[in-house]
Amino acid sequence: MRRLDELDLPTFDHTDPELGGDSWHTRITELARSGWLARTPMATVVLDRGASEEILRSKSAIFPGREVADLFEIDSGPLREEIDRNIININGQDHQRLRSLVAPHFTPKAAESHRPWVADLFSGLLLAAMNSGEFEAVEELCKPYASRVICELIGGPPEDAHLLHDWSVWVQRQFDPIALANELATLEIKAAELQEWVKALMEYKRKSPSSDLTSTLIAIDAEGDKLSETEVENLIINVILGGIDTTQSQLAHAIRLFGEHPDQWQRLTENPTELVAAAAKEALRYEPVTPFTARLLTEDLEVSGVLFPADTLLLVCSFMANRDPTCFSQPDLFSPSSRTGDEGRMLTFGAGIHYCLGANLATVELEEAIRSLAENVERIELVPGSRFGNVSGIYSMDRLPVRLHSR
Ligand code: HEM
Questions:
Q1: What is the CATH number of the domain that holds 257?
Q2: Percentage of residues in the chain with pLDDT exceeding 90?
Q3: Which DSSP state fits 18?
């Protein structure tokens, strides 16, 4: 067995702002050709699917949210409170308890129950946007869709959806060292505003409960000592933070991918019933918006013959895991129509105890958006001016001008 520090590894900077679109695919694929590990200025990148899954499932590997906050001396205040209480930074029995209370509301069946109103929401946005000829799909479709779904789910007033979007983008930056170094004051303000908004929502739902997630969690709190008021508040905040820019970005990439692959779009429009689920799954596999998942080792860990010492920071690369040729045939091809459905599991939603809580809901959202597009749009024309986000956080499309040609 060899120690990590004895290995001569290629270097790679995942924060390079030039990485996006083709340059991102080319660079990471080339890197993976030289081996399954690489070094960034701060961490070690893991490019092999088996090793990635082993690390994500290991009890010795935690999400480093608190440690990053310590590094930036964020010791108190609303942002630190949020970081300490974020479910991603909680492990062991407390995590198990929180997940077991909230998970029943995110099962495949629960996600299925949201399908009709989610579909209506997207169709309404699509028809309004298509009336305006050429339009910017991130601003007019993907953002309002993702934020209104989460707002409706938690029982917030629809007119506040844009606020949730703004807070989710800002407070998510708690995971981004560059933002922590340069924009901490704004992050603190946004975290405080988000907390106040969720507290006010909870107060309202206590008086006027409904079937939404906030009322449901408040009812669990009222049953006894299973869930505290602060925990309800933080679970709602976690859903807002986890569920908006992720789905928004995944949908924007899906629209772009189908614009770039008109043959695949045609097949989909000819047979949406058969292909919609495969289309959503293939967009998630081919262009994961969470290309890197961070882990910090709490003790030495041996993986695939390499000893990773305690305190090693790892970046597990779902992009390469999703291209493992032993699981996916022709993995570099975007091809929903040729996926058989019995491929291996992709790592876009992570693995292990922190596996994405909203994976089923996100899948339903993507499926319904793609279905509505397939039923209404003959051709997706990508208009020049699109802009990719950075791959180091949630890999977004910052702009996606399109013209959608009606069927
Ligand atoms: C395409 C959309 C989405 C993607 C790609 C995605 C991806 C992920 C990934 C990779 C993780 C694991 C992070 C880690 O282990 O460090 C995660 C966790 C999480 N996601 Fe998602 N997510 C998406 C949508 C959603 C939605 C719609 C929700 C809303 C309910 C959500 C809520 C969460 C929460 C609360 C966690 C933390 C779970 C825990 O710590 O136990 N996500 N997500």
A1: 1.10.630.10
A2: 85
A3: T
Total Cβ atoms within 10 A of residue 165:
21
**pTM score, two decimals?**
0.96
As for ligand 1, residues whose beta carbon falls within 6 Å of it are 63, 87-88, 99, 238-239, 242-243, 246-247, 250, 289-290, 293, 348-350, 354, 356-358, 361-362
Q: What is the CA radius of gyration of the chain?
A: 21
How many structural domains compose the chain?
1
Closest residue to atom 3 of ligand 1, CA basis: 246
Range of the domain at 95: 2-406
For the chain, residues with pLDDT lower than 50 are none
Q: Kindly give the distance from the C-alpha atom of residue 157 to the centroid of ligand 1, in angstroms, as a whole number.
A: 23
Task: Dig out the tokens for 193 from the structure.
Answer: 């505003």
> Is 175 in a helix, a strand, or coil?
helix
DSSP letter assigned to residue 11 = B
Q: What is the DSSP string of 265-314?
A: HHHHHH-HHHHHHHHHHHHHHHS-S--EEEEEESS-EEETTEEE-TT-EE
| pLDDT value, residue 10 | 96
What is the identity of the amino acid at 33? R
